[in-house]
Amino acid sequence: MTPNRFAIFQGEIVSIEMAQISIMSHIVNYGTGCFGGIRGYWNEGEQQLLVFRPLDHFKRLRQSARMLLIQLPLNEQQLTDQLLELIRREEYHQDVYARPLAFKNSPLIGVRLHNLEDAYACFAVPFGRYLEKEEGLRATVSSWRRIDDNVVPARGKIIGSYVNSAFAKSEAQLNGFDEAIVLTAGGHIAEGSAENIFLLRDGKLVTPPITDNILEGITRKTIIQLAKEQLGIDTVERSIDRSELYVADEAFFTGTGCQVAAIVEVDRRPIGEGVMGPTVEKLREVFFKTVRGEIPCYREWCTPVYSR
Ligand SMILES: Cc1ncc(COP(=O)(O)O)c(C=O)c1O
Question: Are residues 204 and 233 in contact, defined by beta-carbon separation less than 8 angstroms?
Fold first, then answer.
């Protein structure tokens, strides 16, 4: 039994049991699709569910789809409206996570992107933490390298490429760590298995540029803006050496899944004092207020599900 009862499939909201694809589908055989991950946050005081930056998420999905020669059936606003309708049908009154999927669905043998049937689906489930230890993760630099833009573009959220993330994550966890940090083929820090990464050095945030094979994270963008506007902290986007991790004052991951998660140790070396640093703590506070709609100037990022 899944926790959700419905899904968007072939243009309609159907019962989850009806949203099925064939084992012959192109996506199953070749990983030819892309996906999104969108959170909705329950605001208890307002009795309202707020979906965080859905238009930005669907814009990125469209960009990923474009790379794969997939045509989305609707525009960003329509996809958002359809997602809100799905959540209403589920009658969720708690934090949720939505997973839109755009993929090649032709039942045939033959690896390519063109002349194939496109499909779109979306489901939403109740969701809490993606990473258990958001307040203090022990990370390790992976022996797996991040896929290069000329191999499979990391800026696209491409389903097949998540095998790269899975290799890194399992290696890290089977070796006793919580999360992996993956380097580019050139040896600079790219990101976590499903998170962007930031360091704090000398009072400034430092994060890899989008040309270092990272996903163009929406949480990353949010944090850069919140750090500047709410805490007066600038972010420098530049390539980062592996050893800079070891000497950073603070470090953290960002992502729709992990939200803002403190890294307290890398390769068995403590970051700062080996506990969540004060800047990460403040950023987490501002971030959670923002996503729950409690800071009026960022309220436009929060799309209400229910009419009140
Ligand atoms: C590889 C990778 N990097 C970064 C992120 C963070 O992106 P966002 O903040 O848009 O969720 C994700 C999240 O899905 C990811 O899979």
Answer: yes
DSSP track, 5-39: -EEEETTEEEEGGG----TTBHHHHH--EEE--EE
Superfamily of domain 137-291: D-amino Acid Aminotransferase, subunit A, domain 2 (3.20.10.10)
CATH classification number, 6-126, choose in 3.40.50.880, 3.30.470.10, 2.40.50.100, 3.20.20.140: 3.30.470.10
Active site annotation includes 221: no
Integer Rg of the chain from CA: 19
User: Could you state, in chain order, the average pLDDT of each consecutive group of 10 residues for the chain (308 residues)?
Assistant: 92 97 98 98 97 98 98 98 98 98 98 98 95 95 97 96 98 98 97 98 98 98 98 98 97 98 98 97 98 98 94
Are the beta carbons of 203 and 227 closer than 8 angstroms? no
Q: Whose CA is nearest to atom 1 of ligand 1?
A: 194
The rounded Å distance from CA 157 to ligand 1 centre is: 8
255 CB within 6 A, ligand 1: yes
Cβ pair 83, 6 in contact under 8 A: no
What pLDDT is stored for residue 133 in this prediction?
93
